[in-house]
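Q: How do we represent a protein-ligand complex in a form that can be generated token by token?
A: Start from the inputs.
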Amino acid sequence: MARCRGCGKEIIFVKSPAGKFIPCDPSKVIFSRPGEGKARVVKLNGEVISCTIGTGDDISEAVGVGYIPHWSTCKAANQFRKKKESPLQGTLF
Ligand SMILES: [Zn+2]
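Then emit the structure tokens for the protein with zinc ion bound:
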């Protein structure tokens, strides 16, 4: 299994319909209310949708399972952002 270069956690890659590989957390989640909500989930076919993670109050609202994109849970994601904003690091890119 691959590991994130930022935080060292295990990640998997889900292939999107466009052929891109999206780094995701390896555990699947149930999601509900596709098209609504702030959370992003990568469906098993690689499609990224906005939705609500979990089912809310009613288990029957669950519409599928997917993966959480790693960039939304990665502890190092903030560090990456800070580095990019730093003037010293900025000169390297
Ligand atoms: Zn990470």
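The mean pLDDT is 85. Residues 11-64 form one domain.
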